[in-house]
Amino acid sequence: MRRENPASSSLGRFVVAVLILSAVILLPPGSADTPSEIAAAHLRKGDDLMVQKMYHEALDAYDAAVAVDPYNSIAWNKLGTAHMRTGRYEDAVLAFEHAIAIDPYYSEAWTNLGDSLEMLGKPQEAIRAYDRALGINQRDIYALLQKGISLQETGDSTGAMEIYQEVIQLADVEMRKHPNYAGFDAELWTNKGDALSRLGRYEEAVAAYEKALEINPKYERAEQGRTKAMDTILRARGNPVLATPVTDENSSLPLPTIVPVSGISIISALVVAAVLTVIRTLQRKS
Q1: pTM for the whole thing?
Q2: For residue 219, how many other CB atoms are within 10 A of its CB?
Q3: 255: buried, middle or exposed (CB in 10 Å: 19+, 13-18, 0-12)?
Q4: Which residues contact 78 (CB under 8 A, 6 or more apart)?
Q5: Residue 215 in contact with residue 186, Cβ under 8 Å?
Q6: 200-251: per-residue pLDDT in tens?
Q7: Secondary structure in 3-state letters for 52-121
Q8: Structural domains of the chain, with CATH
Q9: Measuring CA to CA, how many Å separate 225 from each of 142, 207, 249, 263?
Q10: Quick check: 110 and 146 in contact, CB under 8 A?
Q11: CA separation, residue 266 to residues 204, 231, 234, 243, 275 (Å)
């Protein structure tokens, strides 16, 4: 065996160390970032743009994230959310399916998949997605609420009403068990408001939405729910049929389209109702 010269060995190690150090010094800033770190930077940018409602720009940022780190389930889920915000529901489905393929126990991605399928008019497929989310997290009140809405659209009013009642009960349990947490959870109150509205309990729904808006004044779903519930209450004063809760007979029908009315319209409706009442009374007497 050939014996190594100690002096030449030390010199060789010194030369290698100098070359490595030189390479590190000459590398451009940021070139040592890993794909996951680069993707994280794109995700932060996308999140900031979503907050500013710059959804198309956020879409580009999330696209860049999955391009760099294609095995990042969170990036795919965020990309799907941006697709939904821009009305690209088919693309959203594909993105959520990518996220689920990477992480089959990603309950939020399953729920988002259900939402995108619902928007595509596929309630049965949406129900299956919500069931998967609930199988992972049985206390996912939003997924449960959305499953009820999908059931209602398939004509299963009995199942839908049972789910809305369960949503309200679960929300109340959470509020009793964790009052401090519930005091900062606008989504919890909004879920309860949506369930109450679906059951025709509009005044209670308004109270729940207002609590959600106290927590987060910019929560769009709560604001939209409160507006619809209040408008339905106003319209029902002139036509009580509009305040009818979901039943077996009307469950297949969507909730009434909400059209804001003026004070004059309400007064006119009340006058007409009073006149009709007088006419009916006179007819009975005659």
Answers
A1: 0.71
A2: 18
A3: middle
A4: 43, 46, 47, 62, 65
A5: yes
A6: 999 999 999 999 999 999 999 999 999 999 999 998 877 655 555 544 444 3
A7: CCCHHHHHHHHHHHHHHCCCCHHHHHHHHHHHHHCCCHHHHHHHHHHHHHHCCCCHHHHHHHHHHHHHCC
A8: 36-138 (1.25.40.10), 155-278 (1.25.40.10)
A9: 14, 11, 24, 21
A10: no
A11: 21, 11, 7, 15, 14
Q: How far apart are CA 34 and CA 69, in angstroms?
A: 9
Q: Any idea which residue has 């106003």 for tokens?
A: 234
From CA 55, how far away is CA 87, in angstroms rounded? 10
CA angle 169, 174, 176 (to 5 degrees): 95
Helix, strand or coil, per DSSP, at residue 146: helix
What token pair was written down for 225? 């729910």
Structure-token pair, residue 213: 């808006």
Q: Across residues 37-55, what is the average pLDDT?
A: 94
